[in-house]
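I have been asked to look over a protein record a colleague put together. Alongside the sequence sits a line of tokens, each denoting a local backbone shape. I have pasted the whole thing underneath without changing anything:
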Amino acid sequence: MKILLINPNTTKGVTELMMAAGQSAAAAGTELSAETAPRGVPYIATRAEAQIGGAIALEMLAARHHEVDAAIIAAFGDPGLFGARELFDIPVVGMAEAAMLTACMLGRRFAIVTFARALGPWYRECVEMHGLKERCAGLRMLDDAFGSISQVQEEKEALLVDLANRAVQEDEADVIILAGAPLSGLARKVRDRIPVPVVDQVAAAVKQAEALVALKPRKAVAGTFRRPDAKPTKGLAEPLASRIEHRRQGDGSAHGGPRP
């Protein structure tokens, strides 16, 4: 089984953190590979940045989807997730959705704990986007500035654990999600210091992707997530343009008949 992890931000150190967390959770025989965004921002924290990252994620997935069995959009707000599910035939898992759905199987209500206040509006809207507002006990965010984005979990570990424990005590959270790509792998380090289950976002995404591949779902040919009809494009990266136009890469003519 081959799973592609797509990091829509430009920080390779964050990709490495997510790969380490994913590989520790992957089953024997699962092969993980990763792509880091070739342009964009070092970490995604706003709605505008999420829109940019989502478009870049679609480009990266267009170039690699035929090589893998499933893909993970590896940013907690799931930028580009629904578009990816429209365009591509393989299962595409959102890191935030996977973490939240996993948390829902471990308790009634989950709390999200993250490292920057700027992430709050986007994360709240992500919870609502996935229809899980009633299952969310709250969102806790650090106020302090941080140094390196790829080192933020080491720098802020104690504060994040304190926030998680406050969410358990004050918000009555049954499960904690340590959210944001730079916090990947932290759950395993601190789980014994928090009195409820702690979900690692990447581990949850990998296990959900493995499950979907094993279930062998068909690609929708009706409904809102069927592949959109072909249309011409202008100025898009070639792999994405080919996918939208229903043609093979490098072939200037659109396909007729069944969708590839």
About this structure: The mean pLDDT is 94. The chain has two domains: 2-95+208-245, 97-200. The first strand starts at residue 2 and ends at 7.
